[in-house]
Amino acid sequence: MSQDRDVVVTLPLALDDATWAEVEPVIHAQGWRGDEGVRLLLGYGAAVHLDPPEEDLLRALGALRAELATLRHRAFLADQAVRTLRMNRTGLEASVAQARRSLRRLEREVADLRERARKAGVVLPEEAPPDPQAEARRRLRDLFARGRTE
Predict the structure, then answer these.
(1) Could you give the angle at the alpha carbon of 18 between the alpha carbons of 12 and 20, nearest 5°?
(2) How far apart are CA 31 and CA 24, in angstroms?
(3) With contact defined as beta carbons under 8 Å apart, do 108 and 100 qualify?
(4) Whole-number pLDDT of residue 80
(5) Alpha helices per DSSP H over 1-150
(6) Cα–Cα distance between 24 and 33 in angstroms, integer?
(7) For residue 120, how many other CB atoms are within 10 A of its CB?
């Protein structure tokens, strides 16, 4: 009796063999009766074209706002890291420039001292100290060679 009141519209439905061959396994896999399965599948298909409930939209909007806030925070952190790296690079470049100026000044001072020693008659040894860059490369090679376990 309640089943008669639930019926809104009765429709004759004709499916070709190919469509029924696709629909029937789905209905049986779900354990539905034939007419019940067709009604459910029609309902699922209709639901695709209906607007979702307002609370679902609000929930989705809240989730998207939270994701946007997270992305903005990550962008802020990335920007902060980039600024820090730029400041560090600027400081390092200034340190390198100062070291190069100091090196040139010390090289001039060494040359001046050699010239004064030569004028004073002091005989300087021919062998000069090793090139600082070559010495640094040698020390790095030695350091990394010790770490190998070949």
Answers:
(1) 45
(2) 11
(3) no
(4) 97
(5) 2-6, 17-30, 34-49, 54-119, 132-147
(6) 10
(7) 7
What separation in angstroms does the CA of 67 have from each of 20, 64, 138? 43, 5, 52
Alpha-carbon span 108 to 143, nearest angstrom:
31
Q: What confidence tens digit (pLDDT) does each residue in 1-28 have?
A: 445 556 677 778 888 899 889 888 988 8
Q: Does the pTM of the predicted model rise above 0.70?
A: no
Retrieve residue 21's tokens: 């061959």
Positions of the chain with pLDDT under 50: 1-2, 150
Percentage of the chain lying above the pLDDT 70 cut: 89
Distance (Å, whole) CA 20 – CA 16: 6
Shortest CA distance to 38 belongs to which of 20, 51, 56? 20
